[in-house]
């Protein structure tokens, strides 16, 4: 048991959830290592939703709301980290969830689908269409979902698919990725550099607010959004946080032997 | 099978070893996540032993050699990553290994112990004493080992225990941690920001060299060591390597809506 007052409690609980996910057959072993890599960037970012993240989350929600067929792509990690929240966001945005995984098996797709359905979500997982230009399993999609979507929200994404969705299929891509240097982060239309466990709840709040606005206002939010600036800010923040850590080191007591 | 010419061969082999460790009951699944986080820091550091690491490794060995009762703490990840090397370092330094894990079970402790013994190591794992001030399982130690040690080498450590070992028990702590920002890194007397798979072999080399020196020289090495400078260098290197990555990006292609 992890004591609640452990300074890394939140982070350790997420690890526990992924381990449970693995035991349920929802998360891949590789997903555990991938989570660790994200953890590192979150650590450097101070484990909070910065302004650049909030702006991207708000613009992302606006884009989803003005889209005709928005879809939320879900993999094993996202499914176990924020199942309830994904179901809620999906309902508010009127955007179905679709299971899309890199380490593919029909069995795991079904497990993810039924796990999400427990939280009341509508989940597409027919695996009856293929995206051209991708060789790995992320090409396998649902005819009613990503295949015909105009906008796809992709938390914890594979850079390859992000590029194909955009360039070949002309879809808008909103990515959630803690690594602002990743190919996904670079290729997406809107890049949310934030932990999914904060990003999805933030997006629920923005969705509730923006649903009341008229289309013109939403279009304005999307048009005035500049992803290059947001990315630059995120990368700058990584760099500045590291510089601040160095400055604060000098305040510490020297080690004495 | 991972082809030997794969550009990520070394890194992928380490992952395989951790997965094997999991299948043997030695590594915890949570350990895979922790490894992923370390991997990312190592990636940014260029996967090599920098000068700041070599200096800390040398000072760490010197401190172990002048200590009365040095102990090397081992968890599941370290055990599968460098079992042979830990056994060798332990012998040269005359410092026993002690199993100490966060995700505790008597069974896993025994498995780690017997795995290390296969490589000829002397391993303490009686779990017959408790460190005060820690609520989680890392408090459980061996009466003959960490409990009475004056210096503890802790590869891949928990920040809590590091602090208690130092502040409450007055022990010297040498940490190996790829994250120079971690609480462990900040709290240790000597912080080795390096991958254990390079750090332990480096320390073996230093131990062979320093064993020939007299005590006065070893004390001098330890006294002239400044952990703040070493940490600052490590963080600077992370920052500069990231900054260089940013320079190489081309954030052209504005996103258009």
Could you walk me through the main structural features you see in this protein, from its secondary elements to its overall organization?
Two copies of one chain form a homodimer. Chain A is α/β, with parallel strands linked by helices. Helices cover 54% and strands 11% of the residues of chain A. Chain A contains eleven helices and eight strands. In chain A, the strands form two sheets. A six-stranded parallel beta sheet of chain A has the order 3-2-1-6-7-8, with helices on both faces. Chain A has a two-stranded antiparallel sheet with strand order 4-5. In chain A, strand 7, helix 8 (183-187) and strand 8 (190-192) form a beta-alpha-beta unit. In chain A, helix 1 runs antiparallel to helix 2, helix 3 (51-66) packs across helix 9 and helix 3 crosses helix 10. The longest helix of chain A is centred in the C-terminal third of the chain and has 23 residues, at 227-249. Chain A is globular. The two termini of chain A are 35 Å apart. The model of chain A has no long low-confidence stretch (mean pLDDT 91). Chains A and B meet through helix 1, helix 2 and helix 11 of A and helix 1, helix 2 and helix 11 of B.
């Amino acid at each position: 048991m992890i004591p609640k007052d452990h300074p890394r409690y939140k982070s350790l609980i997420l690890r526990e959830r992924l381990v449970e996910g693995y035991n349920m057959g929802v998360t891949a072993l590789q997903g555990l290592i991938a989570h660790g890599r994200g953890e590192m960037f979150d650590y450097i970012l101070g484990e909070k939703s910065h302004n650049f993240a909030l702006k991207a989350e708000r613009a992302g929600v606006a884009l989803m709301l003005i889209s005709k067929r928005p879809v939320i792509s879900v993999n094993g990690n996202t499914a176990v980290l924020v199942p309830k929240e994904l179901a809620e966001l999906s309902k508010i945005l009127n955007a179905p969830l679709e299971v899309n995984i890199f380490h593919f098996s029909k069995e795991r797709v079904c497990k993810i689908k039924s796990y999400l359905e427990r939280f009341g979500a509508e989940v597409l997982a027919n695996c009856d269409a293929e995206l051209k230009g991708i060789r790995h399993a992320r090409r396998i999609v649902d005819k009613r979902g990503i295949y015909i979507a105009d906008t796809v929200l992709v938390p914890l994404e594979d850079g390859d698919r992000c590029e194909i969705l955009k360039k070949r299929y002309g879809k808008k891509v909103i990515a959630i990725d803690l690594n602002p240097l990743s190919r996904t982060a670079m290729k997406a239309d809107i890049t949310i550099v934030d932990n999914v466990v904060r990003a999805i709840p933030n997006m629920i709040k923005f969705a509730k607010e923006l649903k009341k606005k008229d289309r013109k206002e939403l279009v304005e939010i999307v048009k005035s959004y500049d992803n290059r600036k947001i990315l630059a800010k995120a990368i700058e923040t990584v760099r500045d946080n590291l510089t601040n850590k160095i400055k604060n080191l000098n305040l510490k007591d020297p080690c004495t032997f």
